[in-house]
Give the backbone structure.
Amino acid sequence: MTTQSIEASGKRKKLWLAALKPPMYSVAMMPILVGSLVAFAETQVLQVGIFLTFLASAILILAWENICNDVFDSETGIDVNKHHSLVNLTRNKRLVFAIGNGLLGLGIAGIIAIALRQQDPTVLGLILLSCLLGYAYQGPPLRLGYQGFGEILCFFAFGPLGVGAAYYSQTQSWSVGSQVVGVIIGITTSLVLFCSHFHQVEDDVAAGKRSPIVRLGTQRGAQLIPWLCGLVLVLILGAAIAGYLPRWSLLALLSGISAVRLSLQALTYHDQPVKIFNLKFYAIGFHFWSGVLLSLGLVLPSVL
C-alpha cells in the first residue's frame, strides 16, 4: 500500500467518524439518564430493564434523526461542501434513508415494549411527539430548521418531552423536579445545535437557511451563549434551594468551567469559520458535564 493510499484511507476513516458523530449520542442519552435518576431520587426505585430499553431506543432514534437530516439536507444543496455527509460518502441516498428508517423502527419498538409492559401509552405518545418534532426540523414540507426554529423544536423534544417521558417510564406520574430538569437539559441540548451554525453561515445563506446565527449574526449569537449557560446554572441553583432537587445537585455548578470555555471560544472566534468549527464540541462538553454532575448529585444522597 502506497503512502498516498494510506493517507487517503486515514482521511476517509476520519470522514466516516465525523459522519457517525459518536459524541452527539450523549444528547440522546442524557434526557433518559437524568429523567430516570430524578425518579430514583424521589422514589428510591430504579426499574433497570425499562431504563436500559429506553436508553437503547433513544440512541436508535437519534441515529435515525441524524441520518435523515443528511438525506434531507442533500435535497436542498446545503451539504454540498460537507464531505462527511453520509449521503456524500456513500452516494446512495436511498440506502441511507432506508437504514435511518430501520433504526427508527427498532427504537420505536423498544418504546412500544415499555408501553405494553406498563399497559400505559403515555410514554409512547411523548416519544412519537418528539419524533414528529425531529422530523419537522429538517423534513419536507416543513423544514422548520431552515426558518430558524430548530432550537425551539430541539428544546422541547430533548427537554420537557424527553426527560418527562423518561421520568414517567419509571413512575407513571409527573413532578416539578423532573420538569425543571427537562428545561435544563432542553437548554443545554439546544445550545449544541445553536453552536453548530457558526462555521457554516455562508452555506446556510446560499441554501436559504435562516438559522439563528444567520438571523442574529455571529457576534450577537456569541454574546447570547454566556446568558444561556448562566440560565442553566441559575436553574440548578434555584431548584436545589427550593427543594425540587437534592442539595447534592449543586455539584452540577462545577460544569460552569465548561460553560466558561464554551463562552470564551464563541466570543473570541465567532467570525472565524476555521477556528469556530469545533464550537459544538465545546457545547457538548457543557451538556455532558452538567448532565453527568447533575446525575451524580441525584444518586449520592441514596448511597451516602
